[in-house]
Design brief:
About 35% of the residues lie in helices and about 30% in strands. The chain is an alpha+beta fold. The strands form two sheets. It has a five-stranded antiparallel sheet with strand order 1-2-3-4-5, with helices on one face. Strands 6-7-8 form a three-stranded antiparallel sheet, with helices on one face.
């Protein structure tokens, strides 16, 4: 009997126990959990957007540098032609609505750079195209007479801005080549201007 009385007294001293949470506690817990989830989701999305923009900048700058490398290499084989009638007569490729922005005379033929609509839907935006003799496996211009018309860089916006510029200094025959892309951040603004420039020797004629 004494043992039963002791157990009964112990149980009487214990606080009232509840099974689970009340409805109010569950609502508060779910609300806090949802708020934390939304905050984490915003952090992940913002980090993803920053990474995407950084990748776009790297890709655009790399393509601009490669395009300027090719133009500078072409300039090493000849000089700039600044005669519009000569450009039109000597161009080996149809402009197809594009604008000639750079024409070079080399020992194996004329090289023409042009900007305008892309030749097919695989390209994005306006393009910079090169028409001229091809380079061989030895890295030199070929004199075979075969001309290539190829896209050098795409994703340009030549309608609203100067996507390709050549500024000439007539004193020392040094020119400044500039290629500009516009990366749109949203539909309400023009976006970020990404430009790569290089000073080049314009050669014998300008």
């Amino acid at each position: 009997m004494d043992g039963m009385k002791s157990i009964s007294a112990f149980q009487h001293l214990q606080p009232n126990q509840r099974n689970g949470f009340s409805l109010v506690e569950m609502i508060v817990s779910l609300s806090l959990g949802g708020l934390i989830f939304l905050l984490l989701l915003q952090v992940v999305i913002a980090d993803s957007l920053r990474s995407s923009r950084a990748f776009d900048l790297f890709r655009v700058k790399s393509s601009q540098k490669l395009a300027l490398n090719l133009i500078e290499l072409d300039l090493s084989y000849g000089g700039l032609i600044d005669d519009l009638s000569f450009k039109q007569e000597q161009s080996s490729c149809p402009l197809s609505g594009r604008t000639s922005v750079l024409t070079l005379e080399t020992h194996v033929g004329v090289i023409t750079y042009m900007v305008g609509p892309a030749p097919s839907k695989i390209w994005h935006g306006d393009v910079l195209m090169r028409c001229g003799p091809a380079y061989g496996l030895n890295g030199a211009l070929q004199s075979s007479g075969y001309f290539q018309n190829r896209v050098v860089i795409d994703g340009l916006n030549c309608a609203n801005a100067d996507c390709f510029r050549l500024d000439i200094n007539g004193v020392d025959h040094i020119g400044k080549l500039s290629i500009t892309h516009f990366l749109s951040s949203d539909s309400h603004d023009q976006g970020l201007a990404v430009q790569t420039s290089r000073h080049v020797d314009l050669g014998r004629r300008y």
